[in-house]
Amino acid sequence: MPIVDYHCHINPQEIYEDRKFDTITQVWLGGDHYKWRQIRSNGVEEKYITGKDSTDREKFQAWAETMPKLIGNPLYHWSHLELRKYFGFQGHLNGDTAEEVWNLCNAKLKEDGMSVRNLIRQSNVKVICTTDDPADSLEWHEKIAADPTFEVKVLPAWRPDKAMNVEKPTYAEYIDALSKASGIQITNFATLKEALQNRMAFFDRHGCRVSDHALEYVMYVPAGEVELDAIMAKSLNHEPISKDEELKFKTAFMLFVAKEYNKLGWAMQLHYGCKRDNNAYMFEQIGPDTGYDCINNYAPSAQMADFLNALSATNEIPKTIIYSLNPNDDASIGTILGCFQSPKTAGRLQQGSAWWFNDHFKGMTDQMTSLANLGCFGNFIGMLTDSRSFLSYTRHDYFRRILCRLLGSWVEEGMYPADMKALESIVKDICYNNAVNYFG
To answer: Residues 129, 210: contact at Cβ < 8 Å?
Structure first.
């Protein structure tokens, strides 16, 4: 089946420019904090991971020497799926085969069929949703849409975290940028909402159909507009914000945008349960998104239920996909979703696929089993890459193998009939059709 990659972090400029990579390190290890974590775990110096004073070949060697030790790790499976699919390598990557694989991959990357657009075509991708800030000009999306030589839809996805994160010391600077992008001077909560509506309309005209939010947890601490204005004024004046004030502001922000998504027909993705940038020393050295995040086990499910209930009170829950980084939250998510389903859309509220630290064999199996135990598994919208790499589409292959293995085991155990017509429909729907119908 084709792929709808409805959440990823790839750069639309690289798609428009049809980038070609000089080395396997550039396409494989650049920005991939999954791999960086494991190379560090193998005792490798940072200069051979993210450093500027080492060569691509040296970085590749560090990864190759780490690979044999990753027994049971999804990176071992993903990496070999990628080497086989895109480069035709049938062996196993290790320190001894590194030179062979390096030469094979780099020679292959020089071929015309290995540009970014052709990698996407090879992967049978029909739709890509990138991750974009409300202040973004969407210049590259416009250029891709106007290019008749590329048939894949590359659509923006709305990620307004910077507009919500009132506790950040850079909030005032960001609000200034959002004011300029929207043409609306933002001075309080009302004008912030007006500016966001302006930018949502702009994104909607460019084909946006999905939003995404990174939350500590799905909170519900309601407050009035006067209090929200006071909180925002403190932040714009670079005054510190208390935790209670942060939660009140974010609750109001999320309630507002959720109602707007419902009007627009957008889906709302909520990612939570991550504690970020834990290594202060390394954060100072190399910054965020470099492999120093972990699972946070504090997520009061009652507040998530109250948040959805506040939207339900006015029948304004949008299509919603909820992901927790903590697998212990699977059951609570599954039961909360069942409280708020709607005839507007089959599976209107979804538990998102096993995410980040969970997108391995056991994590995917456990997430799908929990979803099946507590919900309507046949309406599941399936996998996404959540990646910055153009080779990561094999994660869909990995997911589909695990899905079919799970369904097959249920049939063999007598839990479902060997009805091949029904099973074929379930698999095709979860792998592709449900996402097409869900996102429109």
So the answer is: yes
